[in-house]
Design brief:
Blueprint lengths: L11 H21 L22 E4 L8 E4 L5 H4 L4 H8 L4 E4 L18
Parallel strand pairs: 2-3
Antiparallel strand pairs: 1-2
């Protein structure tokens, strides 16, 4: 896990505010470039949950109707970020789901953000 030293001494409230600010700037950039965005409420107070990396979506010529991929998270605290409500909503937009969550039981994880296979 990468932790920026600049934020390592910050408390949760400070980190959450910083993360929210970065998120707001990023979503503004996406909107200015014509990308539609849907927002979902966090179900946990984890600062990492603002930009979830426990799922990934793909829609291309191989998966024209899309696929939702649910990743296994290494740390138990990160596993709490998963939202069944969000999974249910996203499942309506994608024809297939690949669920890798069962690997958590074996303590195996391939978190989806920045994974290269």
């Amino acid at each position: 896990m990468f932790i920026d030293i600049e934020y390592s001494e910050s408390n949760t409230v400070e980190v959450t505010k910083l993360a929210q600010n970065e998120f707001n700037k990023f979503t503004s950039l996406l909107k200015r470039n014509g990308i539609n965005i849907e927002f979902f409420n966090q179900e946990t107070d984890s600062p990492d949950s603002i930009c979830p990396d426990w799922f990934m979506t793909v829609r291309n010529e191989i998966f024209p109707k899309g696929v939702l991929i649910l990743g296994a998270m290494k740390k138990p605290t990160r596993r709490k970020e998963k939202s069944q409500q969000l999974i249910d909503i996203l499942s309506n937009y994608y024809e297939d789901t690949i669920d890798l969550v069962h690997f958590e039981e074996e303590n195996l994880a391939l978190e989806l953000q920045g994974s290269l296979v």
